[in-house]
Amino acid sequence: MHLSASTWPEADAVETDLAVLPVGSTEQHGPHAPLGTDALTAEAVAEAGVEAYDGEVVVAPAVPVGVAEEHRDFAGTLWVSEDTFRDYVRETVDSLAHHGWDRVVVVNGHGGNVGPLREVCGRVSRHDDAYAVPFTWFDAVDLDRDWTGDPAAPPVDLDAIGMGHGGPVETALVRAIDSDLVRDDRLDDAAAGAADGWGEWVSGTNLAYDSAEFSENGTVGDPRDGTGALGEWLRERAAERLATLLDAVARRDLSRPDRR
């Protein structure tokens, strides 16, 4: 059940304590992919995972702005501080818990949110009347192993591609969600100005704080490899992983260890 499309009596009638909260970002994804890529993909994976799960789940509206100052040099990028982001997520989870949906999986589509989400979900679970865990879809899908082990998967070398940014992985999933959102006439330019990898690494240290320091147009990886078939495969694999996690969260004993 999607809260934003439901009435309050419909929400009141839901018999579940399980909810998903999609979180993303509004930030550049190269000249070819939309600023809302991370929120769009988080929502799509959340919806697919809920559909794959054998049970009722409340779907909260997506949080569209995250921790993304690293993309500030590109127009349209929005960001909030880590503290603001954590507070927003925590209070949203608290409001879900107020209505009885106190087991929450935060479905994330943005790399900059990963650290803050782990911290705030731990704080919620230790100190609030709720249990929350973060799920980042591109970390949940083991690109190398999963892709290589699927004979039906499209022939793209994800071991060489990696995650990237606005590269083939994100471009593919956006294409699977709505192909019109990918500007095909800009793909060659995106690839020409793309970086091969994220950051500038020396002795295990990333010297760059902002993406403009190492990528001419914000892209990392060649988005021309981001086919619709790859996107469908990614959505299916991420949905499977999310459904498995939802089942584990639904079954988890949430009593404190010292009370067992």
- Which structural class is indicated by helix and strand composition? alpha/beta
| Biggest beta-sheet profile | 4 strands, parallel
Instruction: Tell me the CATH architecture.
Output: 3-Layer(aba) Sandwich
Tell me the name of the CATH class: Alpha Beta
Q: If you average the pLDDT, what whole number results?
A: 93
Instruction: Report the radius of gyration as a whole number of Å.
Output: 19 Å
- Helices and strands, in order, run as HEHEHEHEHHHHHEEH
Number of DSSP strand runs = 6
Number of separate domains: 1
Biggest sheet, spatial arrangement of strands: 2-1-3-4
Task: Give the helix tally.
Answer: 10
Describe this structure in words.
This protein is α/β, with parallel strands linked by helices and 260 residues long. It has one domain (3-255): Creatininase (Rossmann fold), CATH 3.40.50.10310. It has helices spanning 8-12, 37-52, 82-98, 114-127, 137-140, 143-148, 158-161, 168-177, 187-192, 228-251; strands at residues 18-23, 58-59, 103-108, 131-136, 201-202, 205-206. It has a four-stranded parallel sheet with strand order 2-1-3-4, with helices on both faces. A two-stranded antiparallel sheet has the order 5-6. Helix 2 (37-52) crosses helix 10 (228-251) and helix 8 packs across helix 10. The two termini are 33 Å apart. The relative contact order is 0.19. The mean pLDDT is 93.
Give a nutshell description of this structure.
This protein is α/β, with parallel strands linked by helices.
